[in-house]
Amino acid sequence: MSLKNLPKRRAVLAALAGGALFGTAAFAQTPAARPAPVKIALIVPLSGPWSKQGKVMEIAAKLAVEHVNRDGGIKALGGAPLTLVVFDTGDSVERAKNAAQRMVAEHPDLVGATGSYLSSFTLAVSEVTERAELPIITLSYSDLLTSRGFKYIFQSSANGVRLAEESMPILLELAKSQGAKAPTRVGIVMDSTAASVAFVKPMKESGMLEKLGLPIVVDETFTPPLANATPLIQRVRAARPDFLFLLPTAISDTALLVQKLNEFGMGRGRLPVVSNGAAMGDPDVVANVAPELLEGVMTVVANWGVKGQEQLAAELNARTGEPWLTQHVLCAYGHVQTLAAGLELAGKADRRALGAALHRLDTTEGPAKYFTGGRVRFDEQGHRIDASLLVVQWQGGKAVTVYPPAAAVAAPIWPKN
């Protein structure tokens, strides 16, 4: 090579070397080198009478996703972050089913989901997710959810049968422990949703109340939302029970019924009132009913804020404005953590692998901190084995856990009139 061509050759080599270095740097920074996000879904009511609960569940689920990603994402997948898509069930079973169909059609890369607050909605949604082999974790109570032979549904709460069987003896013991007279006549006013039916049905069909010497003297069912509570409460006053199961699921219905009980002289502790589920303890109730009218009202729930969750309660309070941890907020957070734990066990972002992993999951760490029983494991039907109940009571304008003693933040009170 002649000397006059040497500078040109050096320039070409330098350009080639620079291009190689640039290509190496570009390859190192390409998004393909980072683990792809893992997509999960939340499907809850964001419109209609249950929209408030759905909206705070959305906030709690998003916070859980933030926490999982902050703590390193799914480590078994190289630190893959979670991403959340949200769907609105609306205010009816049909709309919930349609939302679920859109969810699986529009997001074929979903690996898991949680929802749908009401048992009626979850029954419809889970028909769709089961066909899609998409694992879904729910807080809903209906025992039908895990008795259909489905492989991809997981129920974190104690179901209606278990809540019914365990609650009445516990409530009678609470009355006795407070020196109150044992009730002898029971009334029931309930809505027609699947959760309320699941709670009452085993009491009636097993003869449980009769065996305990508690005949049902009033038995009324209404379809939510309730327009007028007067006829229902008039029948309660006429039948004169000394213990009332009051089972609404919509906040508006809860407020109407409690106000009417007080108007007819049966509130403020004159008649022991026990509900089932989170609606009776929702902070929005005290926004619509004077706190003194709620004093002493109890509800049996599958999850609630307990001792040791103060830090999470403070963070969720800052996001949602909710002054205490309700079942739906706590479960929405805990379900995302459970899906993350399942993905760690599965080792792949695949819905079938996640479903199989959730059936194998057995932990007292991580998500277990957010559920009664302190352990997360599921049986073959998908029901959480260690699920149990809590009793929550309105005291001083707050709905606080009063049973079991190990989880209680206040001692129970029982009306003695």
Task: Tell me what the structure shows.
- With 417 residues, the chain is of the alpha/beta class.
- It folds into 2 domains: 38-158 and 307-386, Rossmann fold; 161-301 and 391-403, Rossmann fold, CATH 3.40.50.
- The protein has helices spanning 6-29, 51-70, 93-106, 119-131, 160-177, 194-205, 208-211, 230-239, 251-263, 283-288, 291-294, 310-320, 327-346, 351-360, and strands at 38-44, 82-88, 112-115, 136-138, 153-155, 186-191, 216-222, 243-247, 273-276, 298-301, 362-363, 376-377, 390-395, 398-403.
- The strands form 3 sheets. The chain has a 7-stranded mixed sheet with strand order 7-6-8-9-10-13-14. The protein has a 5-stranded parallel sheet with strand order 2-1-3-4-5, sandwiched between helices.
- Strand 3 (112-115), helix 4 (119-131) and strand 4 form a beta-alpha-beta unit.
- The termini are far apart.
Ordered list of secondary-structure elements with their pairings:
Blueprint lengths: L5 H24 L8 E7 L6 H20 L11 E7 L4 H14 L5 E4 L3 H13 L4 E3 L14 E3 L4 H18 L8 E6 L2 H12 L2 H4 L4 E7 L7 H10 L3 E5 L3 H13 L9 E4 L6 H6 L2 H4 L3 E4 L8 H11 L6 H20 L4 H10 L1 E2 L12 E2 L12 E6 L2 E6 L14
Parallel strand pairs: 1-2, 1-3, 3-4, 4-5, 6-7, 6-8, 8-9, 9-10
Antiparallel strand pairs: 10-13, 11-12, 13-14
Helix pairs in contact: 2-13, 3-4, 5-6, 13-14
Continuous helix count = 14
Helix content: 40-55%
Number of domains: 2
**Radius of gyration computed on alpha carbons:** 26 Å
CATH architecture of the largest domain: 3-Layer(aba) Sandwich
Tertiary shape: globular
